[in-house]
Specification:
With about 200 residues, the protein is an all-alpha fold. The chain is about 80% helix and about 0% strand. Helix 6 runs antiparallel to helix 7, helix 10 runs antiparallel to helix 11 and helix 11 (about 160-180) packs antiparallel against helix 12 (about 180-200). The longest helix is centred in the C-terminal third of the chain and has 19 residues, at about 180-200.
Length: about 200
Amino acid sequence: MLIIFYVLERRFIGLSPSLVRPLRRRSLITKWKRQLEMSPHDVSAKSELARLLIESGKYGQAREILLGVQSQMEHSAEYWSDLGACELALGNLEDGERAMQSALSISAKVKYGKPYLRLAEAFAKADPAKAIAYLGEFKEVNSSSCEAYYRLGTIYAGLGNPNEAAAAFRECRQLYRTLPKYMKRHERKWALRSFFRSRS
């Protein structure tokens, strides 16, 4: 029964973590490390390995790899976004913000505006006003993201503004209802989290 419940939850809700994704990611990390053993200067392999390490939460290792290919990748918005994610996760807010701004200056829609979300998360406690501003910019780039409204609500809640938080959670749920079916699978967890937060 637990297995059936897990499969149904993953398919229709998506709040529980994937059991397969970490295994697949570990396999790919091994693959790219072997590739680099054979071709130490393969920039594409280094970029892929760094991306997988970021997904695994190994930001220090990913940062070292990315810094080693900066001269070859300095015109890539995705490169600066990945480096910024590492710096922010490691607590280097100024360096992270600078890298993210470099990514956005190259392409404001890089990774569907995700750098704005990363910046909002990073500054949520240190500078809530800046975090809210970044979320506002994200909504301009990606107007179909329930995640932005959810995170906006959590920031307002942390600031002690329950009315603004409730409004953001409500907007999250309203947006979810207007989304086409193919987008609801990805955004459902944010709508559900907003529902539970508004009830707490």
